[in-house]
Amino acid sequence: AQASQQDSDIKKKKRRLMAAQKRAGELERLVCKIYEDNALGRLPDARYAALDAQYAKEQEALAAEIAELLTSYSFKPQLRTVGPRYGKQLGGIREYLSCVDGGAAMKELKEKGALEFEVNGVRISLAQEDLLIDVAQKEGLVTEGDNNVTVVLDTNLTPELVEEGFVYEVISKIQTMRKEAGFEVMDHIRVAIGRNERLTQIVEANREAISGKVLAREIVRDQEMPVEKDWDVNGEKVTIGIEKCV
């Protein structure tokens, strides 16, 4: 019965994760769309600012939800602190912690500052320093540690999703550069991508989609432009240059 419940919980989390990731992708597209509409004069500044703030708030909440769904916790008692206080209940504490829902327990720990439960009629209260919090690293996951807490993050993104993320980020960076350079909304431009072979290939593969969004007549490799800026695009360092077409 316990295994069946665990399978059900995993499926629910996967559905929640897929829905959250889908919505996050939709928000990325919406952010690009309202930026473009504002730049082209189709969306007033006040409305753009309101929508941008609304989407940013939702993106922050989604990022937190996705991080929670991709994080798995397991708990063990810290014998140095738990032993002297709850020595007779130590076996029951171990059993409880081995079966507890890690995500729910971590949420309780963050909100209340302690996990509280009963063992053989004795009220137990364990703060973070009373716990060893860990995860088993799984295929497609990476772990990052902080003191006695280890966090596991999912890296199982499909190549298509990764590429789509890069494309939208590049479009956003170019739109920002257009605005900062003071170009008119209908000005056509040339774009140069340099110093990053991976991103250059992605941009070239999506040349038509990017050109249409940023009004680029040409996208070239490693050429100097009057306006240039170094960017971090999803962890990839790249130089983007633009110039207005005459």
Give a description of the structure.
This protein is of the alpha+beta class and 246 residues long. The chain is 54% helix and 24% strand. The protein contains 8 helices and 10 strands. It has helices spanning 2-39, 45-69, 79-86, 90-99, 102-112, 159-181, 197-205, 207-214; strands at 74-77, 115-119, 122-126, 131-134, 141-146, 149-154, 189-194, 216-221, 227-233, 236-244. Strands 8-7-10-9 form a 4-stranded mixed beta sheet, covered by helices on one side. A two-stranded antiparallel sheet has the order 1-4. It has a two-stranded antiparallel sheet with strand order 2-3. A hairpin with a 2-residue loop joins strand 5 and strand 6 (149-154). Helix 1 (2-39) runs antiparallel to helix 2 and helix 1 (2-39) runs parallel beside helix 6 (159-181). The radius of gyration is 25 Å and the shape is elongated. Mean pLDDT is 83; it is low at 136-154.
Radius of gyration: 25 Å
Q: Strands of the largest sheet, in order across it?
A: 8-7-10-9
Tally the helices. Answer: 8
Largest sheet: 4 strands, mixed
**Structural class determined from secondary elements:** alpha+beta
| Strand count | 10
Instruction: Encode the helix/strand succession as letters.
Output: HHEHHHEEEEEHEHHEEE
Shape estimate: elongated
**Amino- and carboxy-terminal Cα gap:** 71 Å
